[in-house]
């Protein structure tokens, strides 16, 4: 999680055109969240839909916008291109969301590949990002082979912006925890994800306050 709207009410989860979960349009100061999917599953996957709702509720977002990158839209199943080639489409989605909800703190969230592209989008000069939340990198599980923790920590030390790491103990790349691990720790899947969501909310709230 890296920094570049305090929660109060609950999210209303009816769907709007463009893949958004709507809250109350007039919630002043509520964050606008743009959530990008990973390489292998579109915005309509069970994981994405579940985390979209969870993030909307925990952050009390004015809206959580999801979308599909062109290579996977319309039911396509192609290998993703280089992340750099996805930036323009992602940036267009972000700009449309900002235009619809001006004045709300912008939070970019991504799953795995989507988090990498989110970081690239945040570097664009014409948008102002309050915080970036990377799910699967760097907010990850301790058993995620795609991003060893020691290498991640060495990278974090080089970062100039404020950043935090929350590790889901026993979690894989999608945070799934094995039953044996749950039994040995006494922490089930819902509780582990709940702790992660609280860490996200705390970080986002601090980042937004520091930006004001």
UniProtKB/TrEMBL annotation:
Keyword terms: Hydrolase
Classification via InterPro entries: AB_hydrolase_fold, KANL3/Tex30_Abhydrolase, NSL3/Tex30
Top-level taxon in the UniProt lineage: Eukaryota
Listed Pfam families: Abhydrolase_11
Single GO term (MF): hydrolase activity
Region of interest: Disordered: 1-31
Residue ranges constituting the KANL3/Tex30 alpha/beta hydrolase-like domain according to the UniProt record: 32-139
Gene3D superfamilies: alpha/beta hydrolase
Name this polypeptide is given: Dienelactone hydrolase family
Organism listed in the record: Musa troglodytarum
Native organism taxonomy: Eukaryota, Viridiplantae, Streptophyta, Embryophyta, Tracheophyta
